[in-house]
Protein backbone atom coordinates (compact mmCIF):
# COMPACT_ATOMS: atom_id res chain seq x y z
CA UNK A 1 0.00 0.00 0.00
CA UNK A 2 1.42 3.35 -1.02
CA UNK A 3 1.15 6.15 1.50
CA UNK A 4 -0.14 9.36 0.01
CA UNK A 5 1.39 12.66 1.00
CA UNK A 6 -1.90 14.03 2.28
CA UNK A 7 -2.51 10.95 4.45
CA UNK A 8 1.03 11.18 5.82
CA UNK A 9 0.57 14.84 6.76
CA UNK A 10 -2.79 14.13 8.41
CA UNK A 11 -1.31 11.31 10.50
CA UNK A 12 1.60 13.53 11.47
CA UNK A 13 -0.71 16.33 12.55
CA UNK A 14 -2.95 13.94 14.51
CA UNK A 15 0.11 12.49 16.23
CA UNK A 16 1.43 15.94 17.15
CA UNK A 17 -1.94 16.99 18.55
CA UNK A 18 -2.13 13.73 20.52
CA UNK A 19 1.32 14.28 22.03
CA UNK A 20 0.52 17.89 22.92
CA UNK A 21 -2.78 16.84 24.53
CA UNK A 22 -1.05 14.07 26.46
CA UNK A 23 1.57 16.51 27.71
CA UNK A 24 -1.10 18.99 28.76
CA UNK A 25 -3.03 16.31 30.66
CA UNK A 26 0.18 15.11 32.34
CA UNK A 27 1.06 18.66 33.46
CA UNK A 28 -2.51 19.27 34.65
CA UNK A 29 -2.47 16.10 36.76
CA UNK A 30 1.11 16.27 38.03
CA UNK A 31 1.56 20.03 38.19
CA UNK A 32 4.82 21.81 37.51
CA UNK A 33 8.04 20.14 38.58
CA UNK A 34 9.02 21.44 42.01
CA UNK A 35 12.17 23.51 42.22
CA UNK A 36 14.71 22.00 44.59
CA UNK A 37 18.10 23.24 45.77
CA UNK A 38 21.12 22.22 43.70
CA UNK A 39 22.54 18.80 44.47
CA UNK A 40 25.36 17.37 42.39
CA UNK A 41 25.71 13.66 42.92
CA UNK A 42 26.66 10.44 41.16
CA UNK A 43 28.06 10.70 37.66
CA UNK A 44 27.41 14.45 37.55
CA UNK A 45 30.17 14.93 40.16
CA UNK A 46 32.53 13.10 37.81
CA UNK A 47 31.71 15.66 35.11
CA UNK A 48 32.76 18.49 37.39
CA UNK A 49 35.85 16.54 38.45
CA UNK A 50 36.87 16.26 34.79
CA UNK A 51 36.05 19.88 33.93
CA UNK A 52 38.10 21.49 36.69
CA UNK A 53 41.56 20.23 35.60
CA UNK A 54 40.83 21.14 31.98
CA UNK A 55 39.60 24.64 32.78
CA UNK A 56 42.33 25.29 35.35
CA UNK A 57 45.18 23.84 33.29
CA UNK A 58 48.46 25.31 34.48
CA UNK A 59 46.95 26.75 37.67
CA UNK A 60 46.56 23.56 39.69
CA UNK A 61 49.45 22.17 41.76
CA UNK A 62 51.50 19.52 40.00
CA UNK A 63 51.88 17.26 43.05
CA UNK A 64 49.09 14.61 42.78
CA UNK A 65 47.80 14.85 46.36
CA UNK A 66 47.74 18.65 46.35
CA UNK A 67 46.17 18.60 42.88
CA UNK A 68 43.40 16.26 44.02
CA UNK A 69 42.76 18.42 47.09
CA UNK A 70 42.61 21.57 44.95
CA UNK A 71 40.15 19.94 42.52
CA UNK A 72 37.94 18.74 45.40
CA UNK A 73 38.06 22.17 47.09
CA UNK A 74 37.18 23.92 43.83
CA UNK A 75 34.31 21.48 43.24
CA UNK A 76 32.88 22.35 46.66
CA UNK A 77 33.22 26.06 45.90
CA UNK A 78 31.40 25.55 42.56
CA UNK A 79 28.59 23.75 44.36
CA UNK A 80 28.41 26.60 46.89
CA UNK A 81 28.32 29.20 44.12
CA UNK A 82 25.49 27.38 42.34
CA UNK A 83 23.52 27.15 45.60
CA UNK A 84 23.69 30.95 45.78
CA UNK A 85 21.82 31.29 42.49
CA UNK A 86 18.01 31.47 42.13
CA UNK A 87 16.29 28.06 42.24
CA UNK A 88 15.35 28.15 38.56
CA UNK A 89 18.99 28.77 37.61
CA UNK A 90 20.15 26.03 40.00
CA UNK A 91 17.82 23.63 38.17
CA UNK A 92 19.25 24.65 34.80
CA UNK A 93 22.82 24.06 36.00
CA UNK A 94 21.82 20.73 37.53
CA UNK A 95 20.14 19.76 34.25
CA UNK A 96 23.33 20.66 32.36
CA UNK A 97 25.48 18.45 34.60
CA UNK A 98 22.87 15.71 34.44
CA UNK A 99 22.84 15.87 30.65
CA UNK A 100 26.63 15.63 30.46
CA UNK A 101 26.54 12.66 32.84
CA UNK A 102 24.34 10.64 30.47
CA UNK A 103 26.41 8.31 28.28
CA UNK A 104 24.69 9.14 24.96
CA UNK A 105 24.98 12.90 25.59
CA UNK A 106 28.59 12.52 26.73
CA UNK A 107 29.36 10.68 23.49
CA UNK A 108 27.38 12.78 21.01
CA UNK A 109 27.37 16.25 22.59
CA UNK A 110 30.77 16.20 24.29
CA UNK A 111 32.63 13.73 22.07
CA UNK A 112 33.98 11.83 25.09
CA UNK A 113 33.67 8.12 24.38
CA UNK A 114 34.67 6.77 27.81
CA UNK A 115 33.43 7.81 31.21
CA UNK A 116 34.34 11.20 32.68
CA UNK A 117 36.68 9.68 35.28
CA UNK A 118 38.95 8.34 32.52
CA UNK A 119 38.70 11.40 30.24
CA UNK A 120 42.01 13.21 29.81
CA UNK A 121 42.23 16.98 30.24
CA UNK A 122 43.00 17.18 26.50
CA UNK A 123 39.74 15.37 25.64
CA UNK A 124 37.78 17.59 28.00
CA UNK A 125 39.49 20.70 26.62
CA UNK A 126 38.60 19.63 23.08
CA UNK A 127 34.96 19.24 24.16
CA UNK A 128 34.97 22.63 25.88
CA UNK A 129 36.51 24.40 22.88
CA UNK A 130 33.98 22.79 20.54
CA UNK A 131 31.16 24.18 22.68
CA UNK A 132 32.92 27.53 23.04
CA UNK A 133 32.98 28.03 19.26
CA UNK A 134 29.82 26.10 18.39
CA UNK A 135 27.32 27.62 15.96
CA UNK A 136 24.46 27.01 18.42
CA UNK A 137 24.21 29.77 21.00
CA UNK A 138 22.81 27.31 23.56
CA UNK A 139 26.04 25.31 23.63
CA UNK A 140 28.11 28.49 23.76
CA UNK A 141 26.04 29.64 26.74
CA UNK A 142 26.54 26.27 28.44
CA UNK A 143 30.31 26.55 27.89
CA UNK A 144 30.38 30.05 29.38
CA UNK A 145 28.34 28.89 32.38
CA UNK A 146 30.77 26.02 33.08
CA UNK A 147 33.79 28.26 32.49
CA UNK A 148 32.53 31.06 34.72
CA UNK A 149 31.46 28.73 37.53
CA UNK A 150 34.82 26.96 37.71
CA UNK A 151 37.04 30.01 37.27
CA UNK A 152 34.87 32.09 39.58
CA UNK A 153 35.13 29.41 42.27
CA UNK A 154 38.90 29.20 41.82
CA UNK A 155 39.66 32.92 41.86
CA UNK A 156 37.20 33.75 44.64
CA UNK A 157 39.32 31.59 46.95
CA UNK A 158 41.92 33.76 48.74
CA UNK A 159 44.34 30.81 48.64
CA UNK A 160 44.64 31.22 44.84
CA UNK A 161 45.41 34.95 44.93
CA UNK A 162 49.18 34.79 45.54
CA UNK A 163 49.68 32.69 42.38
CA UNK A 164 48.34 35.57 40.25
CA UNK A 165 49.93 38.36 42.28
CA UNK A 166 46.64 39.68 43.68
CA UNK A 167 47.28 41.11 47.15
CA UNK A 168 43.60 41.06 48.09
CA UNK A 169 41.10 43.85 48.58
CA UNK A 170 42.41 47.26 49.58
CA UNK A 171 42.47 47.43 53.37
CA UNK A 172 40.79 50.86 53.44
CA UNK A 173 37.80 49.50 51.51
CA UNK A 174 37.40 46.32 53.54
Automatic annotation (TrEMBL):
It comes from the Bacteria. This is Tat (Twin-arginine translocation) pathway signal sequence. The lineage of its organism: Bacteria, Pseudomonadati, Pseudomonadota, Betaproteobacteria, Burkholderiales.
